[in-house]
Write a structure and sequence with these properties.
Elements lengths: L11 E4 L5 H12 L3 E6 L5 H9 L4 E5 L7 H13 L4 E4 L14 H29 L3 E6 L12 H21 L4 E8 L8 H5 L1 H10 L12 H8 L10 E4 L7
Parallel strand pairs: 1-2, 1-4, 2-3, 4-5, 5-6, 6-7
Helix pairs in contact: 1-2, 1-8, 3-4, 4-5
Length: 254
């Protein structure tokens, strides 16, 4: 049966940024598909997410760590392995954005955004990749990119740079690790209805401009990423490597 290849029973996932809207939605979707999930929060513990994972009948582990700290990735991977004994799926979702004109952008903001959005992703993927290769059973690594992996944006130079680089990192890791049956892919969300976009939604003029550009005629909801996450985490995507999957209501095709 086709639905069997989407089943994640017996798999263990680590989802970073799972206390936020998008990360929580993907973590819960993986649990509903059968996976046990370690849920990470950067600034707050993802207790609500873990509760919903348990409600789906799966085991959960709440993790917290500031990904601007270079030591955090190693600890997150180690704690996941200590609790579950394996790691099959990694979703690098945690990210931050700092806004300012490029001529005024501070060194501190640049360094922090690049560290969290790009460098920590590489460290987590590297550690997960080593574990998956050593175990010899393959795995799935999913990076959360952005429309700014393709576009430059305005007043977000570090964010655009980090997300553009993340798309290329996805391809680079896929090229090296496909032979180990490790699939490395990305999801690039469009304009999603989250706390991070609350100001844009509240701005009547900007909200109208955004909706006019989206063929679907609406903001994306966190749940709109659930299907893509389960697909990329499951054996249904075993022949997909280095792909950046745009989930944007048609924005990029406009």
């Amino acid at each position: 049966m086709i639905l069997e290849i989407f089943n994640l029973e017996g798999k263990v996932a680590l989802v970073t940024g799972a206390s936020g809207d998008l990360g929580a939605s993907m973590a819960i979707a993986l649990a509903e598909a059968g996976a046990d999930v370690a849920a990470h929060g950067n600034s707050r513990t993802p207790d609500r997410t873990c509760e919903l994972i348990k409600n789906a009948g799966r085991r959960s582990l709440a993790l917290r760590g500031d990904l601007a700290d270079k030591t955090a990735p190693q600890r997150l991977i180690a704690e996941t392995l200590s609790e579950f004994g394996q790691l099959d799926i990694l979703i690098n979702n945690a990210g931050i954005i700092r806004r300012a004109p490029a001529i005024d952008y501070t060194e501190e903001d640049w360094t922090t955004v690049i560290e969290v959005n790009l460098s920590s992703v590489f460290r987590l993927a590297q550690l997960a990749g080593r574990e998956m290769i050593a175990r010899g059973r393959g795995g799935k690594i999913i990076n959360i990119a952005s429309l700014l992996s393709f576009q430059g944006g305005i007043t977000v130079p570090a964010y655009a740079a980090s997300k553009g680089a993340l798309a290329q990192l996805t391809k680079a890791l896929a090229n090296e690790w496909a032979k180990y049956k490790i699939n490395v892919n990305s999801i690039a969300p469009g304009y999603m209805r989250t706390d991070n976009t609350a100001a844009l939604q509240a701005d009547e003029n900007r909200n109208r401009q955004i909706l006019e550009r989206i063929p679907a005629g609406r903001w994306g909801e966190p749940e709109d990423l659930s299907g893509a996450a389960v697909f990329l985490a499951s054996s249904a995507s075993d022949y997909l490597h280095g792909h950046v999957m745009v989930v944007d209501g048609g924005w990029m095709g406009r």
